[in-house]
Amino acid sequence: MTAGLGPEVAHVVLSHSSRTVVEPATIEAELVRRTDEAAAAAIRTRAVTDLRDG
């Protein structure tokens, strides 16, 4: 595995983004994906708000 990561950690890394075709197969992978999606949505919302206020 890359950088000495085990298969479980590699799976979480590969499945965290919708840019890959790897679907989350564990609860940990699903949590990381959903957390990443929520963080990205918050960043986008802030950027749009800044543009509207600017």
Main beta sheet: none
What is the residue-mean pLDDT, rounded to a whole number?
86
The helix/strand order is HH
Uncertain segments: none
Alpha-carbon distance between the two ends: 46 Å
State Rg: 15 Å
Helix-strand makeup class: mainly alpha
Oligomer: single chain
Topology:
Elements: H1 7-15, H2 27-53
Helix pairs in contact: 1-2
Q: Please, could you describe this protein's structure?
A:
By secondary structure, this protein is an all-alpha fold. It has one domain (2-53). The termini are far apart. The protein has helices at 7-15, 27-53. Helix 1 (7-15) runs parallel beside helix 2 (27-53). 7% of the residues are buried. Helices cover 67% and strands 0% of the residues.
Short description:
The protein is mostly helical and 54 residues long. It contains two helices and no strands.
Which terms summarize this structure?
2 helices, mainly alpha, 54 residues
